[in-house]
Write a structure and sequence with these properties.
It is a single chain. By secondary structure, the protein is an alpha/beta fold. It has two domains: 115 residues, Urease, subunit C, domain 1 (Roll); 295 residues, TIM Barrel, CATH 3.20.20.140. The chain is built from 14 helices and 18 strands. The strands form three sheets. Strands 3-2-1-4-16-17-18 form a seven-stranded mixed beta sheet. It has a seven-stranded parallel beta sheet with strand order 9-8-10-11-12-13-14, with helices on both faces. It has a four-stranded parallel beta sheet with strand order 7-6-5-15. The two termini are 14 Å apart.
Length: 425
């Protein structure tokens, strides 16, 4: 299916950043700047948006016109929590968790192109990728940026910082993790990631991942504060993983830019997040994915009950945070075969009390702000990167139009997905 799509439409041959001018026509366009346009025309030049208008006379003579008047246009979507280099597939006949730990890095990067393409098919043109083994995320980011691989724009963290969880001092068997204990080691590990060329820092401040739904804090406040301060000293942001409330509380107090997963946060922590502008990335849907696929991943019996108990608490925390005015960004935590399901998180946000438009902002303007790219990404406006998505239906009335009916995607002015002949799912 994937290879047929790329081959049939010749998309693999079109590299981003071309200097050609295109005029893209939408029946409606939500620009994420507060306006819904009817019969919108987006003029794209050299990978950036030159203008947005309804005046057809402004289309330069002789330029390519792309007629998407049957569809609603959106900015390219942003997923701020992925694991693109941890791609797996059922067809290989091995538990997916074992595939991740046993696959050589070069092979894993090569296979990861499939998940990257499926991410684009979901309308996601930018991701923040949080922890990878062997700096595979840097390699993948650079391959995509150079046009040698088709995939979303990546902002990467390298290895994620872990407190010791093994009886002897050795590199952890946890993919994408580096042990760092105490302030000096934490500072060293942060410096290592920055020296490797990462865009941000990732720190695991609690237990909890895969079929483990515990949330015991693993780093002290002083260690978390050291990581945050060092990242900020170099002008980088930091994402703090915490399944439980204690790691989240200390991450917020320490000045973290985002808190990932955090469930059961108390009112004081939530209010402090709202006051400081700390972003919350709930990642509710990834546990739904684990419940649906745990046997294929290789989880031990009993995982379904643990995760099914966690999901409603995660959703309730998101509801409380949204009501309190906390900035929320969409993160899928996509891993294994989850790529392509990235935007299902938006459906949970609607369940948490958001309107479809508010949910879309978590994957556009909010996510762009978290990346520090609010003047380049997350909106359709002059000077922004030419990332555009066409969906069938009205996503402001029904968020499922985004979840199920992405028909066409442009990234950096290049068409990377065209599914207009594919019926709705």
């Amino acid at each position: 299916m994937l290879l047929a799509l790329v081959s049939t439409n010749g998309l693999a041959q079109e590299r981003p950043g071309g200097k050609n001018i295109k005029a893209v026509r939408f029946g409606k366009l939500w620009d994420a700047k507060g306006k819904v346009w009817t019969n919108a025309i987006v003029i794209v030049n050299g990978g950036k948006i030159r203008s947005v208008t309804t005046d057809a006379s402004t289309i330069p003579a002789g330029v390519e016109t792309i007629d998407l008047s049957k569809y609603t246009g959106l900015p390219g979507l942003i997923d701020v929590h992925t694991h693109l280099t941890m791609y797996a597939e059922e067809a290989r006949g091995l538990p997916m968790l074992k595939q991740i730990t046993d696959t050589p890095p070069a092979m894993e990067v090569f296979l990861a192109r499939k998940g990257a393409m499926r991410t684009l098919e979901a309308g996601v043109t930018t991701v923040r990728d949080l922890s990878a083994e062997g700096y595979m995320d840097i390699a993948m980011r650079d391959l995509i940026n150079s046009g040698e691989m088709i995939g979303p724009r990546m902002f990467v963290s390298g290895y994620g910082l872990y407190a010791t969880q093994t009886p002897s001092k050795k590199e952890p068997a946890i993919p994408g993790a580096v042990f760092a204990d105490g302030v000096p080691e934490v500072l060293r590990a942060v410096r290592q990631q920055l020296a490797a060329g990462t865009d941000l820092i990732k720190m695991y401040a609690s237990t909890g991942t895969d079929d483990d739904a515990t949330g015991f804090e693993t780093y002290t406040f002083e260690e978390i504060k050291a990581a945050v301060s060092m990242a900020h000293q170099f002008g980088k942001k930091i994402a703090i993983h915490s399944y439980g409330p204690d790691g989240a509380r200390d991450a917020v107090r320490a000045g973290a830019d985002s808190v990932e997963h955090a469930t059961d946060m108390d009112d004081a922590t939530i209010q402090e997040m709202a006051k400081r502008g700390t972003f919350y990335v709930p990642t509710i849907d990834h546990n739904r994915y684990y419940i649906d696929n745990g046997d294929k991943i290789g989880y031990a019996p009993g995982y379904k009950e643990r995760l099914q108990a966690f999901v409603p608490r995660n959703l309730e925390t998101a509801r409380k945070a949204f009501k309190a005015g906390v900035k929320i960004a969409m993160g899928s935590d996509a891993i294994y075969t989850m790529f392509g399901e990235n935007t299902r998180e938006l459906g949970w946000f609607v369940k948490a009390g958001m309107t479809p438009e508010q949910a879309l902002r978590t994957a556009t303007t909010n996510a762009a702000e978290l990346l520090g790219k609010e003047k380049e990404l997350g909106a359709v406006a002059p000077g922004y990167l030419a990332d555009l998505v066409a969906v069938e239906g009205d996503p402001l009335a029904d968020i499922n139009a985004v979840l199920n009916n992405v028909k066409w995607v442009m990234k950096d002015g290049a068409i990377v997905v065209d599914r207009r002949s594919v019926p709705p799912r």
